[in-house]
Specification:
With 301 residues, the protein is mainly alpha-helical. The protein is 75% helix and 0% strand.
């Protein structure tokens, strides 16, 4: 039951992130990227903080603050910053292909840091889903030729750092609630990304935010796409092995494309449905094949 609940949380997070790009694209016409990221973290921290206080959750001990700081730095500042830089400097197809390596890195970190065992079933599920991504984006020589080396390296950094964040988050939830982990990581995200945002505003000043739709978009990105989705992602990793949870990363582009098709009348090619079916098949294998291993609560080390 915990495994299915974890699958639900991870799918919910992926669905939210998959659908946030329409809102982000609109808001970014008025607010510079890193400034928007900091606003998201601030709003998320306020919302999560209020819930944390209302729930009288367990605060993080002094000796574990360092781990929370690393979570905020790696998962928020480095990963999101590298994703922005890589997307700007590289091509869209390279971005899709390179960042799809995140689940493989999650599996590697799961083995190294969590001592998880990789079963044949997990390998098959990951291989099917990864191949599905290739079908969706239509990998070809010309598609992969675009973008600079620096941009591609930033994308690799984004993939690796997100994988490390996901596994470190699972380690943290062995001792603390997913709510506490998400809150503290968000707070440190503000601390580390704030100075970059101030520098950015000297280069790319924000436009006057008189449009109420911009403010609604910022609130949505902060409350739903950051506070909600990051909590769901961390909760899902708490309930599942990292190597099993990793594959849900692939659900994001599938649900995002489907929402674009349903809401924005965007056109989808046949390869999307074939690749999407492969991705969902990998997710189904991960979700419904019995696994004897399970999460255990223990101290952070």
């Amino acid at each position: 039951m915990e495994k299915l609940l974890g699958a639900f949380y991870l799918s919910l997070a992926a669905g939210i992130w998959g659908g946030m790009y329409v809102v982000s694209k609109y808001v970014l016409d008025f607010v510079p990227p890193l400034t928007l990221v900091v606003l998201r973290f601030i709003i998320a921290s306020v919302v999560l903080g209020l819930i944390f206080l209302a729930a009288r959750d367990k605060p993080v001990a002094k000796e574990d603050i360092k781990l929370m700081a690393w979570l905020g730095f790696i998962g928020y500042t480095v990963s999101i910053g590298a994703q922005f830089a890589g997307t700007w400097l590289s091509s869209a197809h390279m971005g899709a292909v390179i960042t799809s390596a995140s689940p493989a890195f999650i599996v590697i970190f799961g083995v190294l840091l969590l001592k998880e065992k990789i079963t044949l079933t997990k390998i098959i599920a990951l291989a099917i889903a990864t191949a599905g991504v290739g079908v969706v984006v239509g990998i070809g020589g010309e598609d992969l030729a675009g973008g600079s080396l620096a941009g591609n390296l930033f994308l690799v950094l984004a993939a690796v750092s997100w994988a490390l964040y996901s596994v470190l988050g699972k380690i943290a939830t062995r001792k603390y609630s997913s709510l506490a982990v998400t809150l503290y990581a968000s707070l440190f995200g503000v601390v580390f990304t704030g100075p970059l945002s101030l520098w950015e505003l000297t280069k790319l000043p924000a436009h006057p935010l008189a449009n109420h739709w911009v403010w609604l978009g910022i609130l949505y990105l902060g409350i739903v796409s950051t506070a909600g989705a990051f909590y769901f992602w961390n909760k899902g990793f708490e309930l599942m092995d990292a190597s099993s949870a990793a594959i849900f990363f692939f659900v994001q582009p599938v649900l995002g494309s489907l929402l674009g098709w349903l809401i924005l009348n965007e056109h989808l090619e046949t390869n999307f449905f074939i690749g999407g079916a492969m991705i969902l098949a990998g997710v189904a294998i991960t979700s419904f094949i019995p696994d004897t291993t399970g999460p255990k609560k223990e101290s952070v080390s």
